[in-house]
Amino acid sequence: MTTVNVLSGGAAQGLVRGVTEAFKAQTGLGIDGEFGAVGVMADKLRASTPADLVILTQALLARLAEEKLVVPPSITDVGRVETALAVRSRDAKVTVKTEADLREVLRSADAIYVPDTKASTAGQHFAKVLDQLGIAYEVASRLKIFPNGATAMRELAASAATRPIGCTQATEIIATDGIALSGALPPGCELVTMYTAGVTARAAHPKEAAALIALLTGADRKDLRRRAGFTG
């Protein structure tokens, strides 16, 4: 089957999966692609990895458009995603209303599962939060860092630790079996990221890529986006 190729931040994986059947019915094409840390996905596009569209942070899409790797008129906002905390489904959710609450929760965890702290949106932010809380050195040995949020969350689900916790994009938490969304980061530590889609300049299937973007962002998919963890 001919496919439209996507390079995307992990935050959009569940949403893309949710429109696969509708896209096939509309175009006759499947969807293939890679989902991971946004910085890694952007670099793959720069390295000429075949892709018809990209779904990355708004800032990265703007940069790729400036580099003439994405067609500017095609760029469309998908929705905002919170960086949030996750626990295993069998564990009690944590209540984090203040920075002090978050500091104590992270101090009490014996394993902390996060995505790439250099290339992923949530991972970069989490590293800054640890510095802000003054506990980066204290918890460094407990950090379990994975290439992307989806992998980090799967590993959290399978963790044999006594008191593990995770932090990544809410959409990646919702899309992973065996873990539960435990709430957003508290005021002063929060991060809400706009994700945006665009057709690549070298797209093999530009019309179909535009059709997929329309499916992902259409008003009739608002409920799907909400269930996947996106906000307006």
TrEMBL record:
Q: Which GO terms describe its molecular function?
A: molybdate ion binding
What Gene3D superfamilies is this protein classified in? Periplasmic binding protein-like II
The record ties this protein, via InterPro entries, to:
ModA/WtpA
Q: Which Gene Ontology biological process is one annotated for this entry?
A: molybdate ion transport
Q: What is this protein called?
A: Molybdate transport system substrate-binding protein
